[in-house]
């Protein structure tokens, strides 16, 4: 006959951590995630969402490369507020594209960081038809 202190755990069943192991983990330190990291996660998640595009950056006719979503993050404690400026594909339903971006960003930020997204505002920075993207212009030759 077994005593009340004997415990049999079936194979494959996880054994809960003891209080000592939990306390030890808490004593090792804490994890701080910078808001700049949250910003980069939000921009990356938005840029990978279907319906978003990258736009050409130009200054005085010079091609400066491409840009995508830009984000601003503020927060206090375990909550963050996000403001995204997102270039979207045209033609498409803007509300549907914005909802997809909102869902993807919220999910990814909350999955990868200890923060909860309190608010997420989206501004549409551009509407671009991906089929009409102009090829990069080469500078005109000045020699005759």
Question: Key features?
Answer:
3-stranded mixed beta sheet; alpha+beta; 144 residues; Alpha-Beta Plaits; two-stranded antiparallel sheet; 29% strand; Putative alkaline shock family protein YloU; Asp23
Provide a descriptive summary of the structure in words.
By secondary structure, the chain is an alpha+beta fold. The chain has a domain of 100 residues: Cation efflux protein, cytoplasmic domain (Alpha-Beta Plaits). Helix content is 28%, strand content 29%. The protein is built from 3 helices and 5 strands. Strands 3-4-5 form a 3-stranded mixed beta sheet, covered by helices on one side. Strand 1 and strand 2 form a beta hairpin. It is elongated and about 65 Å long. The termini are far apart. Belongs to the asp23 family. Pfam families: Asp23. InterPro entries: Asp23. This is Putative alkaline shock family protein YloU.
Characterize this entry briefly.
Helix content is 28%, strand content 29%. The protein has 144 residues and is α+β, with helices and mostly antiparallel strands. Helix 2 crosses helix 3 (94-112).
């Amino acid at each position: 006959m077994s005593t009340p202190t004997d415990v049999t755990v079936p194979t494959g069943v996880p054994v809960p951590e003891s209080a000592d192991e939990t306390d030890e983990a808490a004593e090792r330190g804490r994890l701080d995630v910078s808001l700049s990291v949250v910003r980069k996660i939000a921009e990356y998640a938005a840029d990978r969402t279907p319906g978003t595009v990258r736009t050409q950056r130009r200054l005085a006719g010079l091609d400066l490369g491409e840009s995508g979503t830009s984000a601003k993050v503020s927060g206090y404690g375990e909550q963050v507020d996000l403001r995204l400026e997102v270039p979207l594909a045209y033609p498409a339903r803007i509300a549907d594209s914005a909802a997809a971006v909102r869902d993807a960003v919220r999910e990814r930020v909350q999955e990868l960081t200890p923060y909860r997204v309190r608010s997420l505002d989206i501004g549409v920075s551009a509407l671009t038809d991906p089929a009409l993207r102009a090829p990069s212009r080469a500078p005109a030759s000045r020699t005759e």
